[in-house]
Amino acid sequence: MTRRAAVRGVGHYLPARIVPNAEFEATLETSDEWIRSRSGIERRHFAAEGEATSSMAAEAARAALADAGLQPGDIDAIIVATSTPDLTFPSVATMVQDRLGMTTGFAYDVQAVCAGFVFALANANGMILSGQAERVLVIGAETFSRILDWNDRGTCVLFGDGAGALVLEATTGNGLPSDRGILSVDLHSDGRYRDILYVDGGVATTGTAGVLKMQGKEVFRQAVEKLAETAHAALAKAGLEAQDVDWIVPHQANLRIIKATAQRMGLPMDKVVVTVQDHGNTSAASIPLALSVGKAKGQIKRGDLVVTEAIGGGLAWGSVVIRW
Ligand SMILES: CC(C)(COP(=O)(O)OP(=O)(O)OC[C@H]1O[C@@H](n2cnc3c(N)ncnc32)[C@H](O)[C@@H]1OP(=O)(O)O)[C@@H](O)C(=O)NCCC(=O)NCCS
Question: What is the CB neighbour count within 10 angstroms for residue 229?
Answer without folding.
Answer: 18
